[in-house]
Amino acid sequence: MPLYPDPLRFGSVVGLLALLPFLWMGCEPAASPTPEGGAEGYLEEPDENLPETNRYAIETSYGTLVIALSDETPAHRDNFNRLVEEAFYDSTTFHRVIDGFVIQGGDPTSRDDPDNVGQGGPGYTLPAEFTPTLFHRRGALAAAREGDNVNPERRSSGSQFYIVQGRTFDADALDTLEAEVQARLSDSTFVFADSARAVYQDEGGTPQLDQQYTVFGQLVEGFDVLDRIAAADTPRSTDQPAPGPFIDRPIEPIPMVIRPLP
Questions:
Q1: In this structure, how many other beta carbons lie within 10 angstroms of the beta carbon of residue 114?
Q2: Domains (ranges, CATH) in the chain?
Q3: Which of 12, 81, 119, 204 has the fewest C-beta atoms lying within 10 Å of its C-beta?
Q4: What pLDDT is stored for residue 26 in this prediction?
């Protein structure tokens, strides 16, 4: 079963959302408690020997994406630093792209076993790190995860991430999404902050995912690259038949190399 944010719950706002499957991380629906295959696979320990940078370049054939990690999400920050230091992401691909939604990567099977893409990870999950100041604006860097039905703590994938392209929303659409997020969280006090509303109306994003998937950084350079990757041909965008796991996989692979920046 995929690891995902769940836009299908918010299809009433606009027809496009009803077409958007979840962010994947792959495993059968209830067969395994985590996408990487075991509830015991948690990573909690801090690492004292990580690079002292929060800025990374994701180099692709479409150009370079520059991301900045947030200090408000230290578990996700340190985990990403560690994986980059190990060259974990090198030659993996953006295996799922949906124009107007997100581009997703970080699955080692996209490099090692592409027929099973969407089902890989480092063998552990991370605790959710939700904070109101980090939301799903255009360019947000966030962690994919397994669905709430098997992951009620909303723990993140150990490696799969997505970058939000999104779209803009007017005030009425945001009101509708706000009510639906309240229901999703079982929290009637949830609201989009005024500052977030302004961003969603002016710049865009995926507000339907807020406080459900950990945002741990932001794209700071390469928004044109984001748009080009999101527009890459996939079976879905070109009306070609494909099995569910591959419907949003780029027809031509988009490999990445991630390196730290000063």
A1: 15
A2: 7-32+51-260 (2.40.100.10)
A3: 12
A4: 39
User: How far is the C-alpha of 138 from the C-alpha of 198, rounded, in Å?
Assistant: 12
Axis-axis angle for helices 194-202, 171-185 (nearest 10): 130
Which tens digits make up the pLDDT trace of 83-94? 999 999 999 999
pLDDT digits (tens, 9 = 90+) for 177-204: 999 999 999 999 999 999 999 999 999 9
Residue 64 tokens read as 């370079």
Neighbours of 103 (CB within 10 A): 29
Q: Whole-angstrom Cα distance, residue 196 to residue 210?
A: 10
- Predicted TM-score (pTM) of this structure: 0.86
Q: Is the dihedral of CA 214, 220, 222, 227 positive or negative?
A: positive
- The amino acid present at 250, given as its one-letter code, is P
* Per-residue pLDDT at 221 exceeds 60: yes
Q: How far apart are the first and last CA of the chain?
A: 38
SS (H, E, C) the chain: CCECCCHHHHCCCCHHHHCCCCCCCCCCCCCCCCCCCCCCCECCCCCCCCCCCCEEEEEECCEEEEEEECCCCHHHHHHHHHHHHCCCCCCCEEEEECCCCEEEECCCHHHHCHHHCCCCCCCCEECCCCCCCCCCECCEEEECCECCCCCCCCCEECCCEEEECCECCCHHHHHHHHHHHHHHHCCCCCCCCHHHHHHHHHCCECHHHCCCCCEEEEEEECHHHHHHHHCCCCCCCCCCCCCHHHCCCCCCCCECEEEECC
Residue 190 tokens, joined = 């949830």
